[in-house]
Amino acid sequence: MNAIVISCGNELVTGQTVDTNSAYISRRLGRYGIAAIEHLTVGDDRAAIAQAISQAAARVDLVIVTGGLGPTADDLSRHALADAMNAQLVLDPGSLARIEEFFRARDRAMSPENRVQAMIPAGGHAMENSAGTAPGIAAMIGRCRVYVLPGVPFEMRWMFERVVEPQLPAGTGVVLHRTIHTFGAGESDVGARIADLMARDANPLVGTTVAAGLVSIRITARAERQADAERLCDAAADEIRARLGTLVFGQDDQTMASAVGELLRARRQTLATAESCTGGLIGQLITAVPGSSDYYRGGVVAYADMVKSDLLGVAPELIARDGAVSESVAAAMAEGCRGRFAADWTLSITGIAEPGGGTAAKPVGLAYIGLAGPSLDVAVHRHVLAGDREIIRLRSALAALNHLRLAMI
Prior knowledge:
The chain is α/β, with parallel strands linked by helices. The chain has helices at residues 10-13, 21-30, 46-57, 77-85, 93-105, 153-164, 187-193, 226-244, 256-267, 281-287, 305-312, 316-322, 327-341, 389-408; strands at 2-8, 35-42, 62-66, 89-91, 119-121, 125-127, 136-141, 144-149, 174-183, 205-211, 214-223, 248-251, 271-275, 296-301, 345-351, 366-373, 376-384.
């Protein structure tokens, strides 16, 4: 069984918002042996959306549309679906009652514009949305099932898991996905080590994706039974881990920060940070992980030289002699952080992320990362990272966390 996923919204086609819905839906469909063969992104154009739905419905068994169910003039998915069905929009009393109750329960007045959210193409039916105001819509176009869901990711996921999935027919077999995350080597190096696993006709199918210095290895296994697909994924993942060793830091939804957090928690140790060029980004990545208060004590954003001296005890003459971006200052920041927070591990970072701030001796992308540990004098690692300001900051933060990870394994 095949599917096409259509995402609607000008914010998607202009790049103002990243479409995460399609990836989520494709992963979920794989559990039922349904293969998403295409993702389409369409702007807020009624005719274009209707054409996309009609053409997709003629090709596959299942079409899922996200976005365009709001109450404003640019929310056109319900109208486009009606056009594709050659049907009229009609008011669904049950949906209207639920929308009115949604606002009443929150002590808010319902705008007249919200009434359009209760309009459903004749021949279709509304799907309850307890996570928001816009009901979804289910319909048939010929032999193809069409589901239209809200574009808000939280609402879409709530509806997909509780309303759409119970209605999905089982496809043939199972499609499982797994992702192995690595850091510390380029895509070409990683690819060379697993080249024989990446044949295009293989099962499981193996490929790579790169983002901000992370090289992720995608595994897609197809089998008649769930257990067989899992065995294929497990075998490929085990082989990849064996070949790549300590480059591998996580799998699927695991991040570098969560991998570091697991190690700290297992060792019952704590961490503190002292950041300059990353401006608190390392701390942000760490505290994005639930439960990070178990091991993260806090940090200092020592952006200005005065703060490096006043809060971390970096000698002003050291900064004057070697510069704020230097091995000696990174070491002094790590030592000062250890003294201030009494943590088992401290990370420090100072560097140049500003496009116009580099010199021949200290180019843009230069970063010094200091690491101090329970039985480790301060070690300083030098990196020269490529990218714009945002990418350099992120790669620097990830590199710092990776040095800590490697020191603990």
